[in-house]
Amino acid sequence: MCCTTRVELRRIRLPRGRSRGNVAGRRAPRFGEPSTIREATTQSGSLVTLRAMRRAVLYMWMSAAAAGCSEDVASRTFTDAVQVSAGVRHTCARRASGDVACWGFNLYGQLGDGASMHEGCIGGFECSPMPVAVAGLTDSDDVSSGGEHACAHRRSGEVVCWGDNSLGQAGDGITSRSSCPDGPCAFMPVGVSGLSDAVTVSAGFVHSCALRASGGVACWGSNMSGQLGGAPATVSTCVTSGTPTACSATPVTVVDLADAIAVAAGGHTCALRATGEVVCWGSNDCGQLGDGTLIEGRRPVTVPGLNQVVQVSTGTSHTCARRASGEVLCWGRDDGGELGDGLATHTACRACACSPTPVLVSGLTDAIDISANGVHTCALRASGEVVCWGGNASGQLGDGVATHEACPGEDCSRLPVAVSGLEDAVQISSGMQHTCARRASGAVVCWGDNSAGALGTNATLSVCRSGDVDFDCSRMPVAVAAPP
Fold this sequence. Notes:
The protein is mainly beta. It has one helix at residues 50-66; strands at 7-12, 37-42, 47-49, 81-86, 90-95, 100-105, 127-133, 140-145, 149-154, 159-164, 178-180, 183-191, 198-203, 207-212, 217-222, 236-240, 243-253, 260-265, 269-273, 278-282, 297-302, 309-314, 318-323, 328-333, 347-348, 353-360, 367-373, 376-381, 386-391, 405-407, 410-418, 425-430, 434-439, 444-449, 462-466, 469-479.
């Protein structure tokens, strides 16, 4: 029989963007709210630090496994992944069978297994550092992890979503399911209303979009910045944390767009047209729409001078596109080197350094996959190697280096750097502060912030520091454990 020791937080303040649970009777901060973690107390009243807590939990976990309480999962890794998608604080992978497994933060049900409590994360935080199976999903052919939710496309053309639904991100028209700290959520997949002809799906931070077989695009969730694409400014009103926000809990059709072949939802939304052109809509405070202005776009606007594009990817406030030639261009925010051109002298936008038009990523001519998120971007090269650029406070660049150059508030690299020891990647996905790659073998590796278990391993990792706060991370790829 296994014995457990409960660790209770005495003071909770987590690093920005790293909240992990509703503990000590307080609502967990949502993504972007300031917080830190400093210390906790055990049931006996003993004070422990974050580093000690991490070691203690790992020791208890390993001891339990040695005693026969659980299988030694550390020695088993993924072997059948066909897609990986990294979100803000969680990650999901699609298996060859059509099953989906997720791991990481789960306060809003973003792991999709129907459980509201897991074990293995320190201090009572609601997360699973090991993959768990998404309930009832066995026929997926696309998966996308967003802010605090995730979505999957089924072979039937239907789309299902799970996790945070406070702004209608689940798309089922019902915003009163399970109660989470900030409003409705879904701990298991629910069907997106009226959508039966989808081809792919993309989960953004607080909205989602699907490409339809007709070439049209439908979006649902928050419309605060016009990211639903031509819907009225207020389709309806959702209330999250007491704040009314424009939203739609069911899909709305993006206007002026009938020939899309791909869609990417992040902090804003972009689509690739059959002509090889890119259109974007939504927030534009840092020029992330790429049209040379800082004007918010509630209808798609064309990125001028950009053609022969075969892939587009959206981050928090920047966007990147891959050309058929293997070149990559980025635009938008550049405070943390997100644009990858090596320059620190871009235009001063309203609240950031930026380029409102595309710039060429330096030295990259053979990219076959790209992924932007948070304040960094990664590219897969034809050789199987991966390069990343931008913010590196959590080790999300993966090169094992803690100090590149000083960007405002964090370490960053304004030029692409090679991810350490990764030469056989076939797909990549950037999360908010972590990154994952799928290897040719079907294995998955991740690196960066692991404070909520987003790297999918219970192995001993490193300690990163944000301000005066330590948190779990890995600056180099680590293998994700095998799902159940």
